[in-house]
C-alpha cells in the first residue's frame, strides 16, 4: 500500500472554452490561438493589455527570428535579475529604468500643462528618514562637497504661492554616493525634509551633486556592457513635493554642462529640468548664507509649479482620450 495522500491533481476550476482551437500547422496559428484564448479575459482592461502584450511579444519573436539559445539566454537573464533583488536592491526596477520603461510610464502618467513642473524618475535612493531642515539650513554635513544653495517658490499654475508644502530632497555627495550606499551609515546625510513658508518660498544649503553610476554589479550592469552603453546618471538633485489638494510631484534638477546630460542611462532628464547653476564668488555673501568656509557657492534657483489634483486628473483624462481615439483609429484601419 502506498503512503501517498489521496489527493488528485485538479485544474484551477475554469472549464474548457466552448470553442475548439485549430491544431497549429503553421507558426502564426499559435499566435491566433493564444489571442482567441485571451479574448476570454473577464476584465476589459486586462484583456486589452494582454492582447497587446501577446501581439508585440509574438511580433518580436517573429521579427528577430529568435533562436532557442537566445530565448534561453533571455530566460536566464530574467531569472538572475529576479534573484539579484533583495529588500534593498531592486534589479527589476533597474532593468525597467535602463530600458526607458520607467521614464515612459512616468511621463504618460504625469502629463503636465500650464507651466507645471515636469516629473523625473524617483530612483532607488529615496528614504523616509530624512531630517527636518529649517529655512536656510543645510541638508549635507560639512565636507560633503562644494557648496550649493537651493531656493525657489512652490506655486500654483496661476502663480499663487503654496505655503506649507512638504519638500523632500536628496542627492549624492561629491564622491557620487548616496548616504545609503555607505555600509557605516549612522544617520541620514545629503537629504532633508523642509516646508515652504507663507509666501511659498523655500531655501536650503546643499552640495553640488556629481554624476554617478547606477549599480553595475548585477545582470543590468552586464546588459549595459553588452549594449556598449555607459551606466552613468548626470549629476542631479532630487525633489519630491506634496501639498494637500495638489498632485504629488517627483522630480529632479539637472545642472547644465554635465557630460552625461544627454545620455542619461535611465532617461530621466527633461529639457525643462535642466538648470544653470549661478556662480556666486563673494566671501561675505557665502558666509551670510551659512556656509562656514566662505569663499563661493553655486546657486540653484527654480520655482516649482504644482497642478491641483483636479487639474492633473483633467489632463490625464485628456491624454487617455486622445490615446484611445488613436488606438481606435488604428484598429479601424487594420
Ligand atoms: C537615481 O537618480 O537615484 C536613480 C534613478 C534610477 C536608477 C538608479 C538611480
Ligand atoms: Fe539620483
From TrEMBL:
According to the UniProt entry, its GO molecular function terms are: catechol 1,2-dioxygenase activity; ferric iron binding
Write out the similarity annotation.
Answer: Belongs to the intradiol ring-cleavage dioxygenase family.
Required cofactors, per record? Fe(3+)
* Signal peptide range in chain numbering: none
The organism's taxonomic lineage, starting at the top = Eukaryota, Fungi, Dikarya, Basidiomycota, Agaricomycotina
Q: One of this protein's GO BP terms?
A: catechol-containing compound metabolic process
Task: Keyword check for Cytoplasm, yes or no.
Answer: no
Cited InterPro entries? Catechol_dOase_N, Intradiol_dOase_C, Intradiol_dOase_core, Intradiol_RC_Dioxygenase
Q: Where is the Catechol dioxygenase N-terminal domain?
A: 43-116
Instruction: Please indicate if the UniProt record lists Oxidoreductase as a keyword.
Output: yes
Q: Which segments constitute the Intradiol ring-cleavage dioxygenases domain?
A: 123-306
Which Gene3D superfamilies does this entry report, sorted A to Z? Aromatic compound dioxygenase (2.60.130.10)
What are the entry keywords?
Dioxygenase, Iron, Metal-binding, Oxidoreductase
Specify the protein name.
Answer: Intradiol ring-cleavage dioxygenase
Region listing for Disordered, in residue ranges: 1-22
Amino acid at each position: 500500500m502506498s503512503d501517498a495522500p489521496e489527493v488528485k491533481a485538479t485544474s484551477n476550476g475554469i472549464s474548457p472554452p466552448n470553442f475548439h482551437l485549430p491544431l497549429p500547422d503553421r507558426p502564426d496559428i499559435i499566435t491566433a490561438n493564444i489571442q482567441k484564448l485571451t479574448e476570454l479575459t473577464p476584465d476589459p482592461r486586462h484583456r486589452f493589455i494582454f492582447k497587446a502584450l501577446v501581439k508585440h511579444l509574438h511580433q518580436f519573436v517573429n521579427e528577430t527570428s529568435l533562436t532557442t539559445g537566445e530565448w534561453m539566454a533571455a530566460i536566464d537573464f530574467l531569472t538572475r535579475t529576479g534573484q539579484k533583488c533583495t529588500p534593498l536592491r531592486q534589479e527589476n526596477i533597474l532593468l525597467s529604468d535602463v530600458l526607458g520603461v520607467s521614464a515612459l510610464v512616468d511621463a504618460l502618467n504625469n502629463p503636465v500643462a500650464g507651466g507645471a513642473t515636469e516629473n523625473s524618475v524617483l530612483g532607488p535612493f529615496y528614504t523616509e528618514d530624512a531630517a527636518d531642515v529649517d529655512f536656510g539650513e543645510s541638508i549635507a554635513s560639512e565636507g560633503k562637497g562644494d557648496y550649493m544653495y537651493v531656493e525657489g517658490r512652490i506655486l500654483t499654475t496661476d502663480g499663487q504661492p503654496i505655503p506649507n508644502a512638504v519638500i523632500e530632497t536628496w542627492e549624492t555627495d561629491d564622491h557620487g554616493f548616496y548616504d545609503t550606499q555607505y555600509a557605516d551609515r549612522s544617520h541620514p546625510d545629503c537629504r532633508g525634509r523642509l516646508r515652504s513658508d507663507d509666501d511659498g518660498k523655500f531655501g536650503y544649503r546643499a552640495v553640488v551633486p556629481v554624476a554617478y553610476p547606477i549599480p553595475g554589479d548585477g545582470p543590468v550592469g552586464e546588459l549595459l556592457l553588452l549594449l556598449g552603453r555607459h551606466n552613468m546618471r548626470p549629476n542631479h538633485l532630487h525633489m519630491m513635493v506634496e501639498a494637500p489638494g495638489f498632485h504629488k510631484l517627483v522630480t529632479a534638477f539637472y545642472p547644465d554642462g554635465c557630460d552625461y546630460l544627454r545620455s542619461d542611462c535611465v532617461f530621466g532628464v527633461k529639457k525643462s529640468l535642466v538648470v544653470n547653476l549661478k556662480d556666486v564668488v563673494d566671501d561675505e555673501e557665502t558666509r551670510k548664507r551659512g556656509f562656514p568656509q566662505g569663499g563661493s557657492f553655486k546657486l540653484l534657483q527654480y520655482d516649482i509649479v504644482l497642478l491641483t489634483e483636479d487639474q492633473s486628473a483633467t489632463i490625464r483624462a485628456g491624454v487617455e482620450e486622445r490615446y484611445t481615439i488613436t488606438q481606435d483609429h488604428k484598429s479601424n484601419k487594420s
